[in-house]
Amino acid sequence: MRAQTTERLPVGGGWVFEPKYDGYRVRAGVTGGVARLVSRRGTVLTGLFPEVAGAVAEQLGDGTEVDAELVVYRDGRLSFDALQQRMAGGPRRAGASARSDPATLMVFDLLAERGSATVAEPWTRRRSRLEQLATGWRPPVQLTPFAREVEEAAAWMEALAPMGIEGVVAKRAAARYGAAGSWLKVKHRETLEGVVGAVVGPLERPEALVVGRWDDGELTILGRAPLTPRQAEQVAPLLSAPRSPHPWPDRIRSAHFGGDPVAITHAEPEVLVEVLADTAESGGRRRHPLRFLRARLD
Asked: Tens of pLDDT along 71-108?
């Protein structure tokens, strides 16, 4: 089940709200006493997270399957970098990684119980059954909280953002699992400032800005901000070629921008811009595209 992106929390009756975690979406289940963790893309993660798999096998019960998010808490916030490092470490280092960066399974939906599918039931019934199951759970398996009031969900958006909570998922309480339009996700966004260190495309007709920030005298990449044609016309006259050697490479790695490596055109890092960014980050860079707001000519 995928949530549709929207800009505002829905109002009116019939909605419930859950935190949106910055982690790996997984289906976790037990068959014949053996646990299995599978990512949204079908990757088997069982051997990479043995502490979670063991807890799932022990606590969920045979024939039970849940929808959940794998997260790692590090340095005061959810860390997507820690998850990536655990993936890169592979099964051989999984035991040591589980001790140094233990993962938690935040469960938010019930797909099957004792071999019987529950997806046709409304969210309210699935949640009630999930809460009954969760009475015997203990970390690293945890039940996600929910709110019934949009005001509480809005407060979560602000209060939990520093912990790496990306936003809120709104769900129709009466909907079956998989019903179109019954899950909506609203991301928390913050306004940031940075300098244009490069662009995608030529300086005269930029397609996107590559925004950076100064960190101890080093210009680091914050993220990419796509431009509309009108925004490109506004920004292009402000840009100029570098007057000294530029610290960035000519191509940006795909890990930072998605897809294949992207060629960039360097700019003199002197144009300050204001952008909107969500909370998802990796290595200090925002994983999702920024939204260009304006150039700070003042």
From this structure: 999 888 888 888 888 988 899 999 999 999 999 999 99
pTM over 0.85: no
Which residue reads 């210009």 in tokens?
Answer: 219
Average pLDDT for 136-143: 95
For residue 290, give the DSSP letter: P
In DSSP terms, which residues pair with 229 in a beta bridge? none
Any residues with CB less than 8 A from the CB of 275 and at least 6 apart, and which? 191, 192, 193, 194, 211, 222, 223, 225, 290, 291, 292, 293
42: how many CB neighbours lie within 10 A of its CB? 7
Distance CA 4, CA 19 (A): 15
- Compute the mean pLDDT over every residue in the chain, rounded to the nearest whole number: 90
The one-letter amino acid at 151 = E
Q: Regarding the domain with residue range 4-180, which homologous superfamily does it belong to in the CATH classification?
A: DNA ligase/mRNA capping enzyme (3.30.470.30)
Task: Let me know: does 198 contact 279? Beta carbons within 8 Å.
Answer: no
The Cβ of residue 298 has, within 10 Å, a number of other Cβ atoms equal to 4
CA 277 distance to own-chain centroid: 12
**Angstrom distance (rounded) from CA 57 to CA 63:** 10
Domain ranges of the chain: 4-180, 189-295
Residue identified by tokens 């019960």 is 61
pLDDT at 126: 98
Residue partners of 145: CB distance under 8 A and separation at least 6? 18, 19
Q: Tell me which architecture the domain covering 189-295 has in CATH.
A: Beta Barrel (2.40)
Q: List, for residues 21-37, the tens digit of each pLDDT value.
A: 989 999 999 999 999 99
CB of 269 closer than 8 Å to CB of 196: yes
Is cis: bond before 140, omega within 30 of 0?
yes
